[in-house]
Amino acid sequence: MSDLSSIARPYAQAVFELAKETGRFEDWSNQLEMLSEIAEHPDFNSLVSDPRITREQVLSVVLEITGKHLDEQAQNFIKILSHYRRLSALPLIARQFESLRAEDEGVIEAELEAAYELDSEQLAQLIEALQQRMGRKVRLTSKINKDLIGGVVVRAGDWVIDGSIRARLDKLASSLGV
User: pLDDT tens for residues 100-133?
Assistant: First the structure.
């Protein structure tokens, strides 16, 4: 199968245009997030790849799981994806949609990895510093990574700041030839 990213791109673009036209970014974000979670479930992949299960049966399962949480446009979108056997691209469609939305809203997505949880004041200071540095609003998600030992790693687009103790130790080891 072709690269899923290039398969997802036109679908994400179409949904983005529809959301922009109707002013329903938040609705589409929520629906795509839910569909993405379903598509990332291990059992879903088995279901989609089982040759004994028809596209209609897979679609029926998705619509049953989502219940009334999908509006008519989202249901039609899922029907199209199912018809063309593109349901496995849902997680990428959701991510690409969010990237398009963030760009349109002048927001940059940043990811913070920290060795421990930062308090709200530390997060606010970090967000403010990133916004000043990047000249855009920053939407920050964070996760804990104990392997960093201490410090943080921030990723925003192609930009990476690695202020972790792990990186400093690796750099020291490298300079010592270890």
Answer: 998 899 898 899 999 999 999 999 999 999 999 8
Sheet with strand 159-162: strands edge to edge: 137-144, 107-114, 152-156, 159-162
Please give the backbone phi and psi of residue 117, each rounded to the nearest 5 degrees, phi first: -75, 130
CB atoms within 10 A of CB 109: 17
| CB of 85 closer than 8 Å to CB of 55 | yes
For residues 167 and 57, give the distance between their C-alpha atoms in angstroms, rounded to a whole number: 49
Asked if 160 and 134 touch (Cβ cutoff 8 Å), the reply is no
For helices 72-83 and 55-66, give the axis angle rounded to 10 degrees.
Answer: 150
N residues, the chain: 178
List CB contacts of 96: < 8 A, sequence separation 6 or more.
Answer: 5, 8, 9, 12, 13
What is the distance between the alpha carbons of residues 69 and 47, in angstroms, rounded to a whole number? 21
CA distances from 17 to 13, 14, 76, 84, 150 (A): 6, 5, 15, 20, 42
What the block records as the tokens of 45 is: 């992949």
Look up the pTM and report it.
0.71
Nearest of 21, 30, 20, 105 to residue 74 by alpha carbon: 30
